[in-house]
């Protein structure tokens, strides 16, 4: 069984000790570099979302190519990570959150595989946008690997980036029901659903969102927090990969085209 892992900021070097094999996966949307590694008895297709050197900004990530690459590699289960800011006082920097809903405020990204070029109009149900089985796997992995509880629900609000938000925007987003905010969770989650993949994301709260405290936000602050939690995050992900199971009967696997 091969598991897909999308690495967000701060974990691009998760499997470097293995000297992973790099392959180039060709898709109709472009070429995707993927690293193949082993975690226990599982093969992992490891894809750093921003590139291995963190050189791709969030609004220029080729989300469609990335998801098609996992399909081509036979990954039916995909776990992602996201560094996020928090708009919820109960979700503090350093906390792990397994979100169950999203709010999409992106502006200019290709949103779908279903552009209608084949003359067929498709609509996709995202009532439950993240795989409940994989979300539970992440929860149990956190308990087992770290002996701690994570936040089992929350709404991820995705913005275009690469700039951070204004305090006025954060106040609005929080009033709309957002708990955490990031720049990379969408359209990734929707594309995974369109492709019939089981997909869930583990969010790491790296900072308070703008205006929650008086301190300004910096990329260095995000990196510092991710460094502090890196070892725990690595342990959690390795445990989750070992626990993940393929299930053809999962509702996520229903293809839309």
Question: What this model shows, in words?
Answer:
There is one protein chain. The protein contains five helices and ten strands; from the N terminus they run ββββαβββαβαβαβα. The two termini are 23 Å apart. Strands 1, 2, 3, 4, 5, 6, 7, 8, 9 and 10 form a ten-stranded mixed β-sheet that branches. β2 (21-27) and β3 form a beta hairpin. The protein is α/β, with parallel strands linked by helices and 257 residues long. It has one domain: 3-Layer(aba) Sandwich (Rossmann fold), CATH 3.40.50. It has helices spanning 63-72, 132-146, 167-175, 188-194, 219-243; strands spanning 2-7, 21-27, 30-39, 42-48, 77-86, 96-98, 101-105, 155-159, 180-182, 198-208.
């Amino acid at each position: 069984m091969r598991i897909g892992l999308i690495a967000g900021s701060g974990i691009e070097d998760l499997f470097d000790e293995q000297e992973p094999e790099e392959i180039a996966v060709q898709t109709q949307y472009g070429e995707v570099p993927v690293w193949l590694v082993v975690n226990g008895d599982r093969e992992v297709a490891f894809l750093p979302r921003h590139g291995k050197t963190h050189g791709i900004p969030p609004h220029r990530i080729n989300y469609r190519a990335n998801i098609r690459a996992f399909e081509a590699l036979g990954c039916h289960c995909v776990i992602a990570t996201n560094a996020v800011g928090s708009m919820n006082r109960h979700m503090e920097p350093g906390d792990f959150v397994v979100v169950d809903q999203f709010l999409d405020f992106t502006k200019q990204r290709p949103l779908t595989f279903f552009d209608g070029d084949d003359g067929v109009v498709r609509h996709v149900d995202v009532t439950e946008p993240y795989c409940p089985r994989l979300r539970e796997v992440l929860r149990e992995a956190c308990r087992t690997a770290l002996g701690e509880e994570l936040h089992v629900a929350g709404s991820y609000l995705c913005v275009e980036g690469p700039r951070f938000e204004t305090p006025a925007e954060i106040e609005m987003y929080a009033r709309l029901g957002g708990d955490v905010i990031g720049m990379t969770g969408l359209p990734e989650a929707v594309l995974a659903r369109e492709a019939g993949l089981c997909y869930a994301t583990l969010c790491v709260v790296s900072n308070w969102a703008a205006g929650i405290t008086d301190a300004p936000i910096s990329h260095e602050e995000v990196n510092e927090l991710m460094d502090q939690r890196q070892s725990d995050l690595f342990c959690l992900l390795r445990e989750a990969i070992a626990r993940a199971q393929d299930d053809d009967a999962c509702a996520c696997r229903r293809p839309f085209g």
